[in-house]
Amino acid sequence: MENYSIKRYSNIAVLIIILLASLDLFRAYLEIELVNSIFALKELVLLVLFIHLCRKKNIKISNSILIVFIFSIFYCGINVVNQGSFILYFVFLKYLIVYYITYIVFDNSNLAVLQKAVNLLVCIFFIYSLISYVRLFLFSDSLFRSGRISGDANPSFLSYIYLLCFLYAFTKNKIFIATWFAIAGFLTLTKTYFVALVIIALCLIVFSSHRMKVLFISFIMTVVFAYVVTLNDDIFIAFDKALTVLLYKDNNEYNSFEDRISRISTFREENTGNFISGYGTGKASSASVFVDEKLGVKIDSTIDFENQMLNFYYSLGVLGLFMMYYPFGSKAWIIFNTPKGSAKYFFFLFLIAFGLYNMTLNILESYTTCIISLLFLFVFEKEFRKNNEDNTSK
Question: pTM of the predicted model, to two decimals?
Fold first, then answer.
């Protein structure tokens, strides 16, 4: 009876984590103090869950993850003593705890629980995108960020979630839902999404047996998107600008795709040859913005390349890159060395999307996209393992 109670509690808790992660994306653009107060407790909810699971059941934590987690905390602390800010360290420490505890909780959750969480996530964002479309046609003046259909959410982060929802729906052969999210992602007019979806579609056409489905989705998406773009002048102007910046380098456009990937001129200016250990925990991070907005403390000599890989590399050096991407890299390495399974290429398509967005946004430092990235990591990984085991037993 106790085991059943623990299992039920764990299932509910994982769903609550995903619900909080989903709603947290919209909180960033809603000035409601009560909502901010409620969701400020999201990390505490995760910590309480973790402690409860440790007390009630035998959580399996791989030695490698535990070692990297402990090493990360000490390394970031030493790094901040030498070169960084103690305030940034505590903000980064909170992030590290969320990141690794979420990894451990999801790693100890069974596939059925994680699939329920993904289905909840898909449902939330399907409804949200539907509301955005209604607002588009009934109240065109409410378009967010001049033609980018994202409602109250960050359009770039939203497009990333839509892309993962598209991949998941496609693996489940839910073509209508997959098409819906493909279109929804395009309407956010996010340049990284344009690139990522084209690469993923080409990979599916070349390497999978779902070529006709991909071509069908591409046709429907093109027709609907062309209709919506020509219907609204604001969307057309925003799309034309996004496409122009994507295809042609514009030195006056701060958010061009090339500029987001490299931030090359700024990166070279800041480089004085200290990338082995980095320049201090959080020195290149969205954490400084958090400290300024939430605590009212301005920290000098910080920078944000809007490129997660460069941010970690600049702040923490080569070791920092290893610490932050080890959880994803370890799963990728295991699957890479596992015999071919029917779901293997979907896992690597997820890694392609994850990698591209890490080169253009601060994906891992955002609670929302960090949690959701880890969720899809384990869903695709566990589904691959299950399919591989089923094929082996036949």
Answer: 0.86
